[in-house]
Fold this protein.
Amino acid sequence: MSSIPVERPALQAKDFKSDLKPIWCPGCGDFGVLQAIYRALAGIGRPPHEIAFVSGIGCSSRIPGYTTAYGFNSVHGRALPIAQGIKLARPELLVLVAGGDGDGFSIGGGHVAHAIRRNIDLTYIVMDNQIYGLTKGQLSPTSPRGLKTVTSEYGSLEAPVNPLLYVLAYGASFVAQGTPADMAGLADVIEQAIRHPGFSFVNVQSPCVTFAPEDQQVKAQRGRMKTLASVGHDSTNRLAAMGLAQTYGEVLYTGVLYKDPAPQPTLDALVRERQAKLALEAVPRERILDMFLQK
Amino acid sequence: MVPRTIDFATLSLQDALDLAILVEEEAKERYDELAHQMELHHNQDVGGFFRFMVKIEGVHEGRLEHRRTELFGAAPRRVRREMLFDVEAPDYDDVRANTTPRQALEVALRAEKKAHEFFTRALAAVKDPAVQALFAELCEDEVEHAGLVEQQLSRLPPDPVIKAEDVEDDPVAH
Amino acid sequence: MNDLIIGMAGSGGDGVVSAGESLIAAAAYEGYHAMMTKSFGSQVRGGESSCRVRLSTSRVHNPGGALDVAVALNWDDFLRFGAELPVSGDTVVIYESKTGVAPDALPLIGVTPHEVFAIPIADMAKQATGSDKAKTTIVLGLIAGWFDIARESILRGLKKKFARKGEKLVEANEKAFALGEAYAKEHPLKKPRAMERPVGRDGAKMLTDGNDMCAAASIFAGCEFFGGYPITPSTEIMQFHTRELWKYGGAVLQAEDEIAGIGAALGASFAGRKAMTATSGPGMALKTEIMGLATIAELPLVIVDVQRGGPSTGLPTKAEQSDLYMAAFSAHGDVLRPVLAPTSVADTFDVTVQAFNLAEQFQTPVIMLSDQEIAQRKETVDPIDTSAFTVETRKLPSAAELEQYSRFRMTADGVSPVSHPGMPGGNYQGAGIEHNEAGNPTASGRVHHAMNEKRFRKLAPLQARRDLFHIEGDPNAPLAMIAWGSIAGVCREALDLAKAKALNVKLLVPWLLYPIAEDVYRDFFAGVKAGLVVELSFQGQLYHLLRMYVDVPSCVTSFCRSGANPIQPREVVAKLLQASLALQHPINPIATEA
């Protein structure tokens, strides 16, 4: 490691890297996502102990363990509820949530809408690989129609969930998409997402190297991806964002799809406000029973 | 936000040297990660090669650091790792659990070429003559490194007919 | 007379429950011991409703059996509550004469009460207030008049209740009350029954129900987060917190489902805050996976299960004690989780505080099994001296421990100091996956076994917590009862009744249901010649649970039946009496042969 001091003793990407070695398959898209997260966190500059990083179950849900933040690799589909509890309990924390498409849009799909409508200040990163990797290649909620897997021997008969449209429709105030094919771009949208006050969502097209064909790997994405800047997208226009989101599964747009120009107050901020307002009415805890006295 | 791009036009020699050091550092770390990946997946041959590359990139880094310290002492660094992405570090997507030694050399070759392209592109934008000289030198270095790798490649026998993926067990569910 | 049970039924619009509340509030103010249960038809609004209020000069342990006073504003409604409003020959029956039922032709099967009053209640209300809406105020006047109870306090309560609606309304109700009272004076009971004045502790009592008591106790215990989902009969706990918890810097999340409710609570606990959730059986089923996560992540969490009849939707408004197996066993993997149960509104305070303390002390989820009756009945409670209670908080790592922090470090007592996000140096990975001492994932059988052992070992001190058990009656008595939850109250009264019949009985009431404290039961069973484990469930779950761990003597049997079929103290006494007689006249095959 270089011994030359940096100009400002700022946190660097490596400060967020834990000693634990990823067990992902070589070539997995999640390696790039992890790098992007390190760099986004370096950009944010909050020390690791002020960060809570929650995940569910799946290959990608291993990710908190590869950071130096406080991590919680919880149970399948429940990362968002747990993260919201953490944020409400300690609003001063930076709360990140990560997981796969199955975690977020299948078993835990019911939680996404509610995290969005609460507009709680956390960043949700979904590593969307359109497959169940950890259980060996079954259909996922974002698998394209017709995909042949071990649970769709003759091809999937179901249309996929469109994660981008889903979160836009529920009113998410920040929605972006990225790919490890463009790590700088991905780090950038993750950092923007974290900086955005309120619920922010980043869908990462992070291919599965083991259960998806070569033409869908990171290298192939590099030729296919289209930055939203290059198509002149106005990221303050939710309807325009929804229009572009319709192409999910066909066109790989990267960048910020939607960013609310006038975001609503966050739930955690409102909670703090209420706590402050009502604090004066508190009787001491040891006298709480007085309210039951028939006086 | 941390700048994620480099303004080559205004780059000083000190910054340029620091940048070059960070490029080597990134490559070194990536090879280390890839070596771990290979070892975890019981691909010892390729793991060993990547470990060798860790050493090589370390040597390059050391040389540059020496030069930098001689010229600028302990003057604080102004450029950051966050400005770089995969300059000389091989792409994650370039390796697989079954990467063969020949493919591993090709990975290294692509990485050297990538670095060469980076410095060539940078060279076009650089204004400072000292920086120009440094980048030209680094360009040449990368050509030389690529040549070495190519030499190695030519010495290697072709990959065997039976590949790992022909015999390996199915992936394991967790 | 020192014990009076009043039952009233009418349509929701009549406000009998509201009248019952006025009555019990007045009784509490005067210093009576009192208890009130309510029961409703399945309509959300305006259906039939009923309440039972029991007043006494000594402690009231359960809602009691046959009514002393039955008030039927409408016979159809009254009869719908059948078993909950039993009438005996001694019951004073008061009913609305408009129903057209003749006093000698009451629609009661097999009983002809001595004192029956057909009263034009609606007309009297109209006379006093110009509307028949004040029927229950007339009834309160009748009760005050005949039984000489809480007159001033009822009036005071009515004043308070109607004050914000205007002076006119207060006056009208006072007139109605006076009219009822005058009627009672003009038509005295054949057998006068004036209530004695309350004795003992001076001054007002607390009045509340189990759910509010639980929520208040949790605030005393330091609760800072509630996550939950509405479900009968537990919802009032969340409702209380949405009013109060913010004041203490806490937060409440009404989650999108039961899983999210407990998930958020666990998240808050991970963040270092004391947290709880509350639910009933169906919700417990949904929360099970996250309870497993709390166990392996070693995080404190209090889960309140207010039991109702099951399975599935079952009987949402009726008490049952059929979630004990679920509380003890519904877990994936090897799990030991403390299960506690309060037995009254009053001790809901103690048990809730214990639940938080155990959760914090042992870094474990703790289940508190309340039940619909305790949760939703109102009870007078003597003031509680909170300074007598200690409040535990989880063991945090010291500065030295944070130098090289290991979250799941093997310690002698199995409890490892726990950090939380925001604490520098305490960074670790919480996980549902098995982990080593540092918190890193592992599939090692050796580590898994060691961690299981640690998670069980840390709870070993529970075996010695005799303070979580109460033995009442003569500790050497040959006749024994074991009862938990609301049924403990039934058995407490049975104990008093048995004593009056000169039976020598003891009663064991566990607050701690699981793990089974084997020594406590072994000691209790020593010398027992006959015994009952009394429960309100079809299976008799505690009885069978005991048999898993303890050599339950064959003379100790299960006395149980499904929820919504309240067990009466006198039934229990009858059983004990039977057992006592059998002991005195044993059918002893050896003796016969000889």
